[in-house]
Amino acid sequence: MTERAAGGERATATLEAIDVLLVDGDDGWATGVAEELERREPDLRVESALGANEALAVVHEASIDCLVVDYRLPETDGIELVERIRDERPELPIVLVAGEDAEAVAARAIDAGVTDYLPKDPTIDQTPVLAGKIRNAVERRALRRAIEDSERRYRTVIEQSRDAIVILREGRILFCNERFGEFTDSSVDDLVDTRFACLLYTSL
């Protein structure tokens, strides 16, 4: 299995099996979609939950890579469930599925922090589209985490360097390390957003 970070989310951009929780108020629909996703996409391992309370229990106990939530749920609506989960798992990829009031639901979904959105159409097989949205959401999150890890390592190297290092954007200091602060006899916080040319002038 791919290495996971705290909270059950994957720590690298290399993906193997993807653990999906499918939340719906219709057990028959959820079970059918889960089985079809696993049949078509062998790397998807799909578990279904009937309603928000069961979903929250699974999220608390299991390692989930992506959550697929239907808008219509018994205890609440899907967006309220998303908001509750976002408080605990802010980076968990979430795909919302809705079959009515698509535009209004989509707007609320974006505000709630949904990763992607799928208008439900019972007249066609949407399994391939849903599988693609799941995969894309998980891969984007894994890639974003890999980039963040790389930036964090790069920043650590710069901050620990014995050389004075400064990064400029349009003539202003975007970042500098402690060594540069010592060189200019200023704190790093005071230097950020300062015009580099003005700093040189006052140092002369």
UniProtKB/TrEMBL annotation:
Give the InterPro entries listed for this entry.
Bact_response_regulator, CheY-like_superfamily, PAS, PAS-like_dom_sf, Sig_transdc_resp-reg_receiver
Task: Name its GO BP terms in alphabetical order.
Answer: phosphorelay signal transduction system
Q: In this protein, which residues make up the domain named Response regulatory?
A: 18-134
Alphabetical UniProt keywords = Phosphoprotein
- Is this entry keyworded DNA-binding? no
Entry-linked PANTHER family: RESPONSE REGULATORY DOMAIN-CONTAINING PROTEIN, STRESS RESPONSE REGULATOR PROTEIN 1
Q: What is this protein called?
A: PAS/PAC sensor protein
Q: Which organism is it from?
A: Natronococcus jeotgali DSM 18795
